[in-house]
Amino acid sequence: MKNLGSIFAAYAIGWGIFFVYFITVARRTVALREDLERLKNSLNRGK
Amino acid sequence: MKRYAFCGTLVVLLVSAAAYCSLLLAPTESTMGSIQRIFYLHVSSAWTGLTSFFVAFLANIMYVYRREPRWDWLGTSAVEVGVVFTSVVLVTGPIWAHPVWGIWWTWDARLTSTFILWLLYISYLLLRTLVEEPERKALFSALFGIFAFIDVPLVFGSIRWWRTQHPQPVVMGGSGSGLNPVMWKVLFFSWFAMVTLMILLTWSRYRLEAMRGDLDTVRREAEVS
Known about the structure:
Structural class of chain A: mainly alpha
Oligomer: heterodimer
Order of helices and strands of chain B: HHHHHHH
Helix content of chain A: over 70%
Order of helices and strands of chain A: H
Shape of chain A: rod-shaped
Distance between the termini of chain B: 33 Å
Mean pLDDT of chain B: 93
Radius of gyration of chain A: 20 Å
């Protein structure tokens, strides 16, 4: 198969972009969930 | 959570099946050879990116009309996902172009309008970081999103209205356009797989934005008490 390197690069980079984006969304969600829990707990303790 | 994991697994299977069809099942194109296989990822990502911007456009209109935060959350989620798909288009295009055209990039109408589209929606995301107050941020970005969408018909029409180096359209391209029937099936299956990926990513991003809304509400309650 000719140009195999280019085909491999296109698919690897393309999927890599999707994968990295999914991971960043997942990490942001986990961080935000922790913030939300922390804030709720501190509010409950204050009541 | 179980439903999300199930949908995620389904999307991974669909995208893997689309890749298998694109790389191994589709026939080799007679003039370009195997490098044409990039087309299935490139075109399906482009169509999905434009679909995502259309979802954002509808959500932006709904926000301006209703002023409900959920439309702002959907708008920003769809824009971010659309930018990701358009980034894939802008990366895979030059990888295909270099062996076929002998150059990585040229400022023709399709490439330039797509690059401007990407820049416009990057500006939309940057604009959201500049405005602090939630209602103003949502309204400004919704109005900007409606304006940015003007470029989408230009991207679609660029290869139909002007003579470009970019290949002519395979859909709605008039006489002489079209594809081998197996290539059609592979292209539409790839697009379907990409749309399921778009829905999953938009869903994930929407959950994040909704959680951010909850956090703002709790913070405001904490400030009041």
